Amino acid sequence: MNAKNPVPTTNLSLPLTPYYLLDEAAIVANMQIIARLCELSGAKALLALKCFATWGVFDVMQPYLHGTTSSSLNEVRLGYETFGKGRDSENKKETHAYSVAYSADEIPEVLEYADKIIFNSISQLNAFKDQAAAQNIPVGLRLNPKTSNSSFIIADPARPFSRLGEHNKDSIAAILKDITGVMIHNNCENDSFDAFSESLADIEVKFGDILQQLEWVSLGGGIHFIAPHYPLEQLAERLKTFSTKYGVQVYLEPGEASIHGAGTLVTTVLDTMYNEKNLVVVDSSIEAHMLDLLIYRESAPIVAVNSDAINIAPLDIDPTNIAPISENTESADNTIIYGRSCLAGDIFGEYTLANTLKVGDAVTFGNAAGYTMVKKNWFNGVNMPAIVIRRLDGTIDIQREFDYQDYKASLS
Ligand SMILES: Cc1ncc(COP(=O)(O)O)c(C=O)c1O
Question: Which domains, ranges and CATH numbers included, belong to the chain?
Answer without folding.
Answer: 9-16+262-409 (2.40.37.10), 25-259 (3.20.20.10)
